Amino acid sequence: MSKKSRQFRRLLGSNELEFLIEAHNGISAKVGEEAGFKGLWAGGLCMSAQYGVRDNNEASWTQVLEMLEFMADATTIPILMDGDTGFGNFNNVRRLVRKLEQRGIAAVCIEDKLYPKTNSFIKGDRQQLAEIDEFCSRIKAGKDAQSDDDFAIITRIEAFIAGWGLGEAIRRAEAYHAAGADGILIHSALATASEVLAFKREWGDRLPVVIVPTKYYATPTDVFRDAGFSIVIWANHLLRAALTAMQDCAATLAQEQSLVPIENDIASVKEIFRLQGASELEDAEERYLPQKGRESRAVILAASRGTELGELTASKPKTMVEVGGQPILGHIVNTYNNAGIRNISVVRGYMADSVNLPALRYVDNPGYASSGELHSLARALEAESSDGHSLYVSFGDVLFRRYVLDAAAEPEDDFVIVVDTNWQGSVNLGRVADYVSCSEAHSRRAYYHKVYLEHADEALADERRHGEWIGLLRVSKTGLPILRQVVAELAADPANKSAQLYDLLNELVRRGHRPRVVYTTGHWLDIDSLDDVLAASSFT
Ligand code: SPV
Ligand code: MG
Asked: What residues contact residue 66 under an 8 Å CB cut-off, 6+ apart?
């Protein structure tokens, strides 16, 4: 893509009739470019109108410049700025040109009137033209000020607007040409193109001629083409189109007090995001933000009903039972989110549709009733095949404190499990629990030693128990491909249909990938009974 000033030069010198569309802010500029226009007109009328002020230099030129910068940043096509009269004399024009170049504006158009200007369609015949010599000094100063040879200065002749004839228009064109202008914009407020056509016939091709057919809009474009004009500017049409749409929308909403009548007729929020380039930011975040949370994901296994909670799970699974004002799943998600982990998949089974908290990815396991936890995990891993991040796996009915996640994140091992030393408590409750036997019991000494899992089992003999696995497994970035493979292999064997996660842990041990054990005492809660639901309210 060549630089914008060069692109504009090409349009100006092209043998074809070229078109510029008006734009007045970043998003309208994008709309113009996406429609296929090769250049934009930043018209004073619309730039001032979008600020809600008159086209009388009420917006300062630096305010206009700020908007131009957004427009230039939002697009890859050249912008011709309507520089009005140049905002003063030769000195103001040269500063303007330098600033426009700095902001990536390809060209400026200045008109031969006096500051502050008035729009040409408001009492044009009363408008005072600049002295030719004085206006030429603005052109010369502007040309001398540009540092990019391709930057163009278009000079706009208001002789017809002010009620002077063709002779004056030509006289001015010749003087401006001699002063160094790169093109002429000949303006007319007539409903026919007669003035601009007469000018073009007389002027010939001495400099490219640009026109703004706002008033003589009914003239067929081929007439302009045949006459040999260089560029046609559609000078105010995006703003006018937007205005009608905004007025209609506002009137309907004021009257109907409902979004229903307009929703299908207006751009979606998604479309705004697209034009804003939201997806580019997401990609950039992937590249530039390797924060802890982004590197970690979580899978929550929440497929089972939890019959032990009776009526509470008649219409939703246990994970959606409310404790302390929100579903158990909500508490678990909050804990992950607070640790910076936002990419979370939930495996649903029983009453899947009722598991519907926002901002989660859902994976369904329709065969949940006849398969075990391992199959749910297999589905989650299949649904999301990307690696390059660590993964937490936990259950939809287990609450734990943020501290537990942090503790599991500390060791560098491929597999880390969190084990509660306070396992005797669960025996008293008569619960089924994942008991574990480890390389070393919890002790002060064990704090300095690395402790590994040796075996996990619901039916582990008392004397072999070192604790209860709380159901939290952390898999490192390098462990994840191993996990995938082991889970896929196990899940492929029909003998493992009802395999649980502790079977997976044992398989990891068997294959020499011993999970590292992090001991905790408390700080979690497995919700297995109505008593637990009550206890959870105080836990959260
Ligand atoms: C503009 O678009 O601001 C112009 C063209 O200068 S006109 O409004 O026709 O004067
Ligand atoms: Mg203007």
From this structure: none
Q: Are strands 343-348 and 361-364 parallel, antiparallel or unpaired?
A: parallel
The Cα–Cα gap between 402 and 205 comes to: 76
CB of 236 within 6 A of ligand 1: the answer is yes
Tens-digit pLDDT profile for residues 236-291: 999 999 999 999 999 999 999 999 999 999 999 999 999 999 999 988 987 887 66
pLDDT tens digits for range 75-112: 999 999 999 999 999 999 999 999 999 999 999 999 99
Domain boundaries, the chain: 4-236, 245-288, 296-539
Q: Which residues on adjacent β-strands are paired with residue 351?
A: 349
Ligand nearest to the CA of 239: 1
Is 55 considered catalytic here?
A: yes
The residue nearest atom 2 of ligand 1, judged by CA position, is 43
Mention every residue, 6+ apart, whose C-beta is less than 8 A from residue 528. Answer: 308, 397, 429, 431, 432
Q: Is the pLDDT of residue 165 over 60?
A: yes
Q: Which pair of structure tokens corresponds to residue 187?
A: 């303006």
For tokens 């909403």, the residue is 253
Q: From the CA of 189, which ligand is nearest?
A: 1
> Domain 296-539 is classified in which CATH homologous superfamily?
Spore Coat Polysaccharide Biosynthesis Protein SpsA; Chain A (3.90.550.10)
Question: Which phi-psi region, left, alpha or beta, contains residue 526 (left: φ > 0; alpha: ψ -120 to 50)?
Answer: beta
Q: 18 exposed, middle or buried (CB, 10 Å; 0-12, 13-18, 19+)?
A: buried
Residue with tokens 């349009």: 11
Same topology between domain 4-236 and domain 296-539: no
Q: Whose CA is nearest to atom 9 of ligand 1?
A: 120
- Buried b / exposed e across 368-385, counting CB within 10 Å, b at 16+? beebbbbbbbbbbbeebe
Task: Map tokens 């002010």 to a residue.
Answer: 162
If one counts every other C-beta atom within 10 angstroms of the C-beta of residue 297, the result is: 23
Nearest CA to ligand 1 atom 1: 43
The CA dihedral of 421, 425, 426, 427, to the nearest 10 degrees, is 110
**Tokens (6 digits) for 491:** 């899940």
**Backbone φ and ψ of 232, nearest 5°:** -105, 135
Short-list 115, 135, 207, 221, CA closest to 170? 207
Residue 293 is inside which H or E element, if any?
helix 292-295
CA distances from 235 to 44, 45, 110, 238, 246 (A): 9, 9, 15, 8, 19
Structurally, what CATH architecture does the domain formed by 4-236 represent?
A: Alpha-Beta Barrel (3.20)
Q: Look up residue 277 and give its DSSP letter.
A: T
Report pTM: 0.68
* Spatial distance between the Cα atoms of 41 and 22, rounded to a whole number of angstroms: 4
Among residues 387, 341, 324, the alpha carbon closest in space to that of 537 is found at 324
The minimum-distance atom of ligand 1 relative to the CA of 119 is: 10
Give the Cβ contact number of residue 275 at 10 Å.
Answer: 15
**Which of 198-202, 353-357, 365-369 is most confident?**
198-202
